[in-house]
Hints:
Blueprint: H1 5-25, H2 56-68, H3 76-92, E1 94-96, H4 109-114, H5 117-131, E2 137-139, H6 145-168, H7 174-201, H8 226-232, E3 235-237, H9 250-262, H10 270-286, E4 288-290, H11 303-308, H12 311-325, E5 331-333, H13 339-366, H14 371-384, H15 386-401, E6 402-404
Helix pairs in contact: 2-3, 5-8, 5-15, 6-7, 9-10, 13-14, 13-15
Amino acid sequence: xxxxxxxxxxxxxxxxxxxxxxxxxxxxxxxxxxxxxxxxxxxxxxxxxxxxxxxxxxxxxxxxxxxxxxxxxxxxxxxxxxxxxxxxxxxxxxxxxxxxxxxxxxxxxxxxxxxxxxxxxxxxxxxxxxxxxxxxxxxxxxxxxxxxxxxxxxxxxxxxxxxxxxxxxxxxxxxxxxxxxxxxxxxxxxxxxxxxxxxxxxxxxxxxxxxxxxxxxxxxxxxxxxxxxxxxxxxxxxxxxxxxxxxxxxxxxxxxxxxxxxxxxxxxxxxxxxxxxxxxxxxxxxxxxxxxxxxxxxxxxxxxxxxxxxxxxxxxxxxxxxxxxxxxxxxxxxxxxxxxxxxxxxxxxxxxxxxxxxxxxxxxxxxxxxxxxxxxxxxxxxxxxxxxxxxxxxxxxxxxxxxxx
Length: 405
């Protein structure tokens, strides 16, 4: 029975495929190994993708390269000249690099752990003043997209403080509203960090323009107030080779003070000074304090304690950790108390005073005192203790990130 034309074509195609498959699969005495695409090695794989945050010049040239594809041949010369003019204008504009915020990982290990943009900005700025980097300028073309995002992160950190303060002063619900506002700003900063990481991991867009040739860095002095210069001369960024200010013990502080006074910087009776220093060292070594008063850092006690960063909460969490370790009843000499421990005890006292004041205001309200009296008292309490709530963590972070010279 003759096959139809459609059936014959299908059978023919199937037969051809079968023959080809048989030839490919059949063993041969002199068969040569056939390289497949999967087995072909990739040469110079790292060169296929250049990662890193693009500079402002990279953004300009990448965008210009895309538009250049639709520019007519007769207009290419004029178009390229306009692109060159824009690049030259960006290259000519200069900024003081250390006057802008930096990524915390470029400043130090502790700033990177804290990721507090204000702490990072202060630490980098003080070190830049001490080393003279504050006067160095760089071309705007060399700034990266991540640098621009870092400015946004710093702005978020600065705005976060008055926003939390305002939320905390809202009657009745301020205690609950303040952490909500804080979480909103923290989430915004975290999103910005995620964008930075994504940009770093991506590939730089290709462009058809040659690399930009820039002039040597120039120096333009920055007028820095003398008190800040004096402070910057006393500290440097902790790089692992020195002891941060926060970790200096009381015994070390006494010896540093003795060495300074003994150097002749101050006209005084050195014999009497050394006798007083010896007596103080003996006192610090002979007297002991409960170890539970030497609190751990908030970030060592868990994310919740770190987020709240309240003295009483940190103290209770530290007490719980000591009870779990069986060291709550241990004591240590006063000589081993660190600067950070003393600072934490001072802020703890202020935090407790603030809580007692707040509790007193609440009790007055329950006793029938009018809100026209209790509300202003509550607002005053928030303003008076604001430096403890918002300034203390910044000062602590700077002390943990910088060493005394």
